[in-house]
Write a structure and sequence with these properties.
The protein is an alpha/beta fold. Helix content is about 15%, strand content about 25%. The longest helix is centred in the last third of the chain and has 14 residues.
Length: about 220
């Protein structure tokens, strides 16, 4: 039996929303067959925190890990799990201990699906986005010792309306609890629990974060 696979990453384009209000991943033609060249070649220009992307500890710590500090095996997750959370604009998302205890203990990639992605084409997606409470990091790590990544369908762990708290949250997850963060995930097609997740960053040394291609095996 073949498994079904779906993308959990957005394709980047000129309209990709970025935290802070910028838009777009720029692409221009360097060579074109239509113009007489022997091949087509493009140049891409984008922030490393564009589209569906991952934050490494170096994003908030000078001495924190960067992309090359993670080996190939790290990027395959055999025990993913997603939960659905109702949220409103600028809300700080937390989970009670009772809710956390419903999450399987062996989870290595946890996804929070909020549905806020329905506003991705609107300004509120970045300037009124929900954020994640710093207290949630320790709750999750205490329950799920093998948790390596927290993913979400909001543009940032930091609510734009509460940036000081967002900095604390990033430190709690990335530095104190060693949970990497994936932001701006495409979760519309994620209806059933995935069996495995593959998450692949751009392999450019020194990156504090990177766009990622995420594939879920259902």
């Amino acid at each position: 039996m073949t498994s079904n696979k779906i993308y959990l990453s957005y394709f980047m384009d000129d309209n990709t929303p970025l935290y802070g209000g910028d838009y777009g991943v720029k692409m221009k033609s360097l060579r074109s067959i239509e113009n007489g060249d022997t091949a087509n070649t493009k140049e891409l220009n984008f922030c490393n925190h564009s589209g569906t992307h991952i934050d490494f500890p170096n994003h908030f710590s000078v001495n924190g890990k960067v992309v090359e500090n993670y080996d190939a095996e790290f990027w395959i997750f055999d025990h993913p799990y997603f939960i659905e959370v109702n949220t409103v604009e600028s809300q700080i998302i937390d989970l009670s201990l009772e809710d956390v205890n419903l999450i399987p203990q062996n989870v290595d990639f946890l996804i929070i699906k909020t549905g806020f992605t329905k506003y991705r084409s609107e300004e509120r997606y970045w300037n009124a986005n929900p954020g994640i409470a710093p207290e949630l990091a320790e709750k999750l790590k205490s329950r799920c010792k093998n948790l390596r990544v927290l993913g979400m369908d909001i543009i940032s762990l930091t609510s734009f309306q509460n940036r000081p708290l967002g900095r604390i949250s990033h430190n709690k997850f990335l530095i104190e609890n060693e949970i990497l963060i994936v932001e701006d995930m495409y979760l519309d097609k994620l209806i059933n629990q995935p069996n495995r997740i593959y998450c692949f960053p751009i392999l450019r040394s020194g990156l504090d974060g990177s766009p990622v291609t995420i594939i879920a095996e259902l």
